[in-house]
Write a structure and sequence with these properties.
Layout lengths: L8 E4 L5 H10 L4 E4 L3 H9 L3 E2 L3 H5 L4 E4 L4 H8 L5 H4 L5 E4 L5 H12 L4 E4 L2 E2 L1 H7 L2 E6 L2 H12 L2 E8 L3 H29 L4 H9 L6 H12 L8 H18 L4 H18 L7 H9 L4
Helix pairs in contact: 9-11, 9-12, 9-13, 9-14, 10-11, 12-13
Length: about 300
């Protein structure tokens, strides 16, 4: 049952992450009105107890809080700006929480533009993938004002476990970029280990179990072990999106003068995997790139 004392939420973008996240808010008692481009996703929201809107303007009109979860900076700009966008149609005093992973500069620019309309903004990208979204155990890294973070915290608590205000506007996106750097390098290292172990004739499941119990263990290995073992690359987080994120982190690092020698190499491996037609697969499919280089099975 929805709780009428809780803020009314508009949710824009009901993809792999957005659908389960919005449903977790409904379960927590929030009234959620959603808009996305695919009718089946709107039907799913309605079936979960939310309200489907016919446009962004309709979704955000009466909302206290607007949450966006779309693929990249161009989509954030498309839904935020223009006569049909969020800034023109949300009420003054509303809080806009962008949970997409975009460039830090896009977040800074959005906050500035929104302030002129009396709309407060937080950038709040997440880590944890589809499983983390479903289980409501996401890590949420936030940029913006402390007061706005305090307002949003109960909402974040319905979506994730680790919730941290990282600094001013854009800081959440900077930390997310670092997250994506670590994850990509970690998956690449795991993928290289898998091919090495298999070519050596070792029992892969046993090897990964013991490795994950020691210093080589990681959340990445825990989450992706079965993907490697079963060659199951159904997307939880697509290579296409990780390619976008590696572009963000290499560009942002160049702007601040930070060298990313290993990150730059992995960014190229992600790009090559995408060029080979694997962009729609899960990022654990970096294993396929290592297999190609090693002449192993694909």
């Amino acid at each position: 049952m929805s709780n009428t004392t809780l803020p009314k939420i508009a949710w824009i973008g009901l993809g792999i992450m957005g659908s389960p996240m919005s449903e977790n808010l409904i379960k927590a008692g929030y009234r959620v009105t959603g808009y996305t481009l695919e009718q089946d996703k709107l039907d799913r929201l309605a079936a979960a107890g939310g309200t489907a809107a016919g446009s962004i303007a309709e979704a955000v009109r009466d909302a206290d809080v607007v949450i966006t979860m779309v693929p990249a900076s161009p989509q954030v700009e498309a839904i935020a700006y223009g006569p049909e966008g969020i800034l023109e149609n949300a009420r003054s005093g509303a809080l806009l929480i962008d949970m997409s992973s975009i460039t830090p500069q896009t977040s800074v620019d959005l906050a500035k533009a929104a302030a002129g309309k009396g709309i407060r903004v937080l950038d709040a990208p997440v880590s944890g993938g589809e499983a983390g979204a479903i289980e409501a155990v996401l890590s949420i890294m936030v940029g913006g004002e402390q007061a706005d973070f305090d307002t949003a915290e109960p909402i974040f608590e319905a979506l994730g476990k680790t919730i941290v205000l990282c600094g001013p506007h854009g800081s959440g996106q900077t930390v997310k970029a670092a997250n994506q750097l670590i994850v990509a390098v970690n998956i690449q290292a795991c993928a290289e280990a898998v091919v090495f172990l298999e070519k050596s004739g070792v029992d892969l499941k046993a090897a990964l179990d013991v490795l994950n119990g020691g210093l080589a263990g990681s959340t990445v290995l825990t989450r992706k072990k079965d993907n490697f073992l079963n060659r199951d690359f159904k997307p939880g987080f697509r290579i296409d999106l990780h390619h976008k994120d590696m572009g963000i982190v290499t560009d942002a690092a160049r702007n601040v003068g930070a060298a990313l020698p290993v990150g730059a190499t992995v960014a190229q491996l992600v790009a090559s995997l995408r060029a080979q037609g694997d962009g729609g697969l899960d990022h654990s499919a970096l294993l396929r790139a290592v297999e190609r280089l090693s002449g192993a099975r694909i």
